[in-house]
Write a structure and sequence with these properties.
alpha/beta; Rossmann fold; 3 domains; 6-stranded parallel sheet
Length: about 600
């Protein structure tokens, strides 16, 4: 068939069953967007900022395991996806992004929105560090092959985003072409680990008295939930998670050890540091997961023996020495280990199970003062307790970086996979609202609630217009503390009460100022209300969901340290200026204990 470059893209996305093409049209992608006129198999969704397009696609994938595609114009439109791409790249989320580009025959002339002083048509290079692979199509005949390779790259091995730059003339020219068939998940054939290494890992695990499994985001990407549960029960192993791994193991299971690390729990850290054998699956051992590698705070590696499973060999042994490294897909490798244990006698560990239960109960008892519903203004902890009691087990909860996320990770139990949708290693703000839209598009049958601080919400509040335009009935719970409260808390914890600066949203005379979120949301066409007490949260959520349209519930929350946030556990390497002599000395003593 004879197709233009834009039509080739449209046809290929349809064959891959990509339901939405998300972005903002501009002169740099006019030929691409026009190719979707009259099509019903791929629907174009407009957003209000290109960053939000990628966050929406990210949330969609995390909710259902299927990728979306995004498009932008040239210039600023092409630069705006950077934050979304980086979020996807660090968290290994697939997303296909097309950016408009200068005409091939005018590259280097400095056409409108071209970056060309060092290299002609150089816009794409700004995005290269943020994607698994980037392509610039210079001839229309290259496009079918590049599309197939891009999708395969995105969906195989360690998943991640890819970018294709489409010059304006390539979008509009035509050629006789055979559009490739869908590769779907065929490209992600599961990779098995070496059988000898699997046997060594099984031997270590079978003899362990205090085994712990650290489940990372790779467990969710591989959909290895059942394999994880079966292996944990076979070993009587405690299961702790990373930020993106939370939700892959039901947190009311007797073996659930909750979260470890600097944003973790005393339960998770105690289990991790006392483990004799640690099986890490799809986890990068980043600084927050490890309490910045300070020995004995979250991990004791060594003497704890580490078995590390990862699809990416680069991660094996990168941050801790391994006893056994297993390169392969999490789902398949966990099955291999389970099979290797089939003929081994593994005694039950009733005392260990009891200890896990006690540690979990102690953690929630420690949270009790923060969850006190009578405290005013209401704490985030008290709000989250009400939200968890209100939502069904299978509800999707979306969050971004900040106190809301930190306390969800510490305090909010998840019971089913793909229900905790949160930004991980890039710690992005502004993710909550657009990602919640993507999650609701992916799972229209589920409750979807975004929980955001006011600073997070303000970064992408414009996407309420997208929610209203497409009638996407998400509910956003805005926890309003009139400032960058998580950083304010960090200033107090690390530097001292008298070192607070630049975090409150305050006028020159010191009076706090906040937008009227209820009025703003109503102005967009949403249902909205404001509440201030713990007892008001459930009724407000009920009304918001029953409204059947996009809804915003604002809660004024406590901003007095320490009730402004949660309980600090673990350790995080936040350098202290030398002029704060006493605190600097304390910091240096702790830093000596880091294992780097």
């Amino acid at each position: 068939m004879r197709l233009t470059g834009g039509q080739i893209v449209a046809e290929y996305l349809a064959r891959e069953r990509v339901p939405y093409f998300v972005g903002i049209p501009g002169h740099g992608c006019l030929g691409l967007v026009d190719a979707f006129v009259g099509r019903n198999d791929v629907r174009i969704l407009q957003v209000r900022a290109e960053q939000a397009a990628v966050h929406l696609a990210d949330g969609y994938y995390r909710a259902c395991g299927r990728p979306l595609a995004c498009f932008t114009s040239i210039g600023p439109g092409a630069m705006n996806p950077a934050i979304g791409l980086a979020t996807c790249y660090v968290d290994s989320t697939p997303c296909l992004v097309f950016i408009g580009d200068a005409h091939t025959y005018m590259s280097g002339k400095g056409v409108l929105q071209e970056v060309e002083r060092r290299r002609d048509a150089d816009n794409l290079r700004a995005l290269e560090p943020l994607a698994k692979r980037c392509w610039r199509v210079t001839k229309i005949g290259q496009l079918p092959g590049i599309l197939s390779r891009a999708f395969r790259t995105m969906m195989s091995g360690r998943l991640g985003p890819v970018v294709i730059a489409l010059p304006m003339d390539v979008q509009a020219e035509d050629t006789e072409v055979d559009v490739p068939g869908p590769i779907g998940r065929a490209s992600s054939a599961r990779t098995a680990a070496d059988e000898g290494d699997v046997g060594r890992a099984a031997e270590l695990l079978a003899s362990a008295q205090r085994p712990v499994i650290l489940a990372g985001g790779g467990v969710n990407h591989s959909e290895a939930w059942e394999e994880l549960r079966k292996l944990a029960e076979r070993l009587d192993a405690a299961v702790i998670t990373t930020l993106p791994g939370k939700g892959c193991f039901p947190e009311d299971h007797p073996l659930a050890g909750l979260l470890g690390g600097s944003k973790g729990t005393t339960c998770g850290n105690t289990l991790a540091k006392n483990a004799d054998v640690l099986l890490a699956v799809g986890a990068r051992f980043a600084d927050e997961t490890t309490s910045s590698y300070r020995h004995g705070i979250t991990y004791n590696i060594p003497p704890t023996k580490l078995i590390q499973v990862d699809i990416d060999p680069y991660e094996i042994g990168k941050n801790y020495p391994v006893e056994v490294g297993l390169v392969g897909d999490a789902k398949l490798v966990l099955s291999q280990i389970f099979e290797a244990l089939s003929d081994r006698d593994i005694p039950s560990k009733p005392g260990y199970r009891a200890e896990i239960s006690e540690l979990r109960a102690e953690w929630f008892e420690r949270l009790a003062p923060f969850r006190d519903p009578s405290r005013e203004p209401v704490t985030i902890s008290a709000v989250l307790k009400e939200v968890r009691e209100f939502l069904p087990r299978d509800a999707l909860v979306v969050s971004s970086s900040g106190n809301a996320q930190a306390q969800i990770l510490q305090e909010f139990p998840f019971y089913e996979p793909r229900t905790n949708i949160t930004t991980g290693g890039f710690s992005t703000m502004g993710f909550t609202l657009p990602a919640a839209l993507g999650a609701k598009l992916a799972r229209p049958d589920r409750h979807v609630v975004g929980i955001a601080g006011d600073g997070d919400f303000l970064m992408t509040i414009h996407e309420l217009a997208t929610a209203v335009q497409y009638e996407i009935p998400v509910v956003v719970l805005v926890l309003n503390n009139t400032g960058w409260q998580s950083i304010d808390d960090l200033q107090v914890a690390a530097y001292g009460e008298d070192r607070r600066i630049a975090c409150d949203f305050a006028k020159p005379d010191g009076r706090l100022t906040s937008p009227d979120f209820k009025a703003i949301a109503e102005g967009f066409g949403c249902y909205a209300e404001q509440v201030s007490k713990a007892t008001e949260v459930k009724p407000a959520l009920k009304r918001a969901f029953e409204a059947g349209c996009p809804a915003v519930v604002e809660v004024t929350v406590n901003k007095e340290f320490p009730y402004s946030g949660g309980i600090a556990v673990g350790w995080w390497d936040v350098p202290v200026p030398t002029y704060l002599r006493e605190r600097r000395a304390e910091y240096e003593r702790a830093k000596i204990e880091e294992v780097l």
